[in-house]
Amino acid sequence: MKGHAPKGTVKKFRIEIVKFAKATVKDLKLSSNYEKAIVNSIQSQIEIFRSFQGQDMYTGERIVPIKLDLRVNHTLIRDQFLWDLNNFESDPEEFAKTLCADLGVHDPEVGPAIAFAIREQLYEIAVQNVASARESRLAKKGRRGGDHTPLSKASSTGLDLVKSFGHKSTVIRKRKEWDVYEPIVDLLSSEEVDALEAKEERNAR
């Protein structure tokens, strides 16, 4: 069928995913129970990407806000910045490495935590965009058929994000926004870390 890969190709691709999952579990010395979870996670993200097929993709800047509020060991870091979704050369790991160097952060665990936080938010934004696109198509079909399909909460968030940071947005900050985007880094004492952990534990109950 047009638009679908041959069965042999799909099967071969799944085998490669399984191999990757097995290698990841082995390298990280995890339980074999994680293999299925890794495979399912990869396949679900691939399906999200495939849902874009047939859509007109905007190739200019697409700016979204990224926020950091992390505590790694004794380092507390808060920051917010703008990220261009359509700049595929942007690398969260390289960005995190540069940010740590600029801020004088020497803890080797902070960089990976920052990169993970960025990727997590980019993934959530992608999911919201896909959901909003699907809901929009359903809404249009509903209007043509006399029905209306309401947008889900997640889709509304995605649409609000696109509305606030649409195609006309830019990564160049206005002077009045400089203070808002200034990063904050604190080195906590052992007593402050213990107090924060106790507070987090109480909130988790």
Describe this structure in words.
With 205 residues, the chain is mostly helical. It is built from six helices and three strands, in the order ααββαααβα. It has helices at residues 7-27, 34-50, 92-103, 110-144, 153-164, 190-204; strands at residues 63-72, 75-84, 184-187. The chain has a three-stranded antiparallel beta sheet with strand order 1-2-3, covered by helices on one side. Helix 1 (7-27) packs across helix 2 (34-50), helix 3 (92-103) packs across helix 4 (110-144) and helix 4 packs across helix 5. The N and C termini lie far apart (53 Å).
Output the keywords.
205 residues; 3-stranded antiparallel sheet; 55% helix; mainly alpha
Q: How many helices? A: 6
The average pLDDT is 77
Percent of residues in β-strands:
5-15%
Strand order of the largest sheet: 1-2-3
Instruction: Tell me how many strands there are.
Output: 3
Q: What structural class is derived from the secondary structure elements?
A: mainly alpha
Taken from the alpha-carbon principal axes, the silhouette is globular
Query: Element order, helices and strands?
Result: HHEEHHHEH
Distance between the termini: 53 Å
Rg estimate, integer Å: 21 Å
The largest sheet is:
3 strands, antiparallel
Residue ranges: pLDDT <50 for 5 or more in a row?
146-167
What proportion of the residues is helical, as a percent range?
A: 40-55%
